[in-house]
Amino acid sequence: xxxxxxxxxxxxxxxxSVPRALEILEHVAGSPSGLSLTQLTRALGIxxxxxxxxLLTLERTGYLQRTSARGRxxxxxxxxxxxxxxxxxxxxREIATPVLRNLMQRTRLTVHLAVLDxxxxxxxxxVGPPGIRLMTTLGQRMELxxxxxxxxxxxxxxxxxxxxxxxxxxxxxxxxxxIVSPRRLADELTATRQRGYAIDDEENTIGYRCLAxxxxxxPNMPAAALSVMGTTAQICEENATQLGSELTLAxxxxxxxxxxxxxxxxxxxx
Length: 270
Known about the structure:
two-stranded antiparallel sheet; six-stranded antiparallel β-sheet; Arc Repressor Mutant, subunit A; 17% strand; Beta-Lactamase; alpha+beta
């Protein structure tokens, strides 16, 4: 019997249902409010009956869920669990976790670490104060324009890349505070660079503020973003500057740890 290792991958056909299912999962994950069957049919170009069978299969296995019997499809608990397990092995998360915990202890606020992923941000690390229910999950995707994490990354991106990303994703409003004007967003990103950290002033969730600083990589580009989140009473004008300083110091510490890890790997392979 031929072993799996001996099979010629080039002669083995792909199953068409698998890439279709993955395309569905990726498309749904990019819409926090979920998508209807009609919206998915228009967006993906998959025959409606075929698409519905795939959606039902993904729903029955827990990778998708519906808001009601005929409602919108959203990412399911099993998909989020799978994302969390994958992210648990992330080298950056492992390196940064002690810094996240220290920042949480110093500020008594919820701390997040996120990376840029296909024109959105993905949360790869989070630490909350004891007794506080976390409002986010590992692997959760969020918009660039409405979050401090997203703006902290976007502010230091190349202008051409940022413009392309903004064209591909609409500046969707989450509430009346969300920035939906490209000009206003550009002004906010300029202010972010001047401050050294980004601000989400109830733009994503009413009643909550968030500050975030970029984690610069060796070429001085953002490899990730680090944030603190709290209520409007916990984060206010009086303490924002101090919290911003705490953030930038912690982000610098993560940058140094990442650089040290890379250097150690180089020495081990030399």
